[in-house]
Amino acid sequence: MNIDIIDNAIDEKDFGTLESVISNVSFPWYLQYYLNNKNEFSHLILDDGKVLSDYYNFTKPILDIIKAKHLVRIKVNLYNKTHQIEEPKSSVDYTNMDTSIFYLNTNNGYTNFGEKKVESVKNRLITFNSNTKHSDSTCTDMLYRVLIKINYTK
Hints:
It is built from two helices and eleven strands. By secondary structure, it is mainly beta. The chain has one domain: q2cbj1_9rhob like domain (Jelly Rolls, Sandwich), CATH 2.60.120. The strands form two sheets. Strands 1, 2, 3, 4, 5, 6, 9 and 11 form an eight-stranded antiparallel beta sheet that branches. It starts with a strand and ends with a strand.
């Protein structure tokens, strides 16, 4: 299993802008049914290669790093704080492409790959083959955990 990790992935100014936009009270969150019978909030920026959100341009600094040939999905996920860390069953996003996850805040949550856990650290970008089973946890030490998940081909 190959997981590429880039810390301090985007410029501090770009990170500050992205963080302030997504954490702003006016950012539109949509309730989703979470895999472990909890609720999560998400914002679908792009799906099936079609831009669905006015917030697309704020993801450009991340997209410049991953150099996608074809974007399939960009989704912002917010997991509320829980009393204990909760983690749904592992799943696969897509087949025959790549997934990148960009963490917007540091907390004790993580992405679990079975034999390896990657900690949620702000401005960290991880990339792996979308065939890789993984799950994203909640956190217990912050009010929420926020990440941007991007599925694409190179």
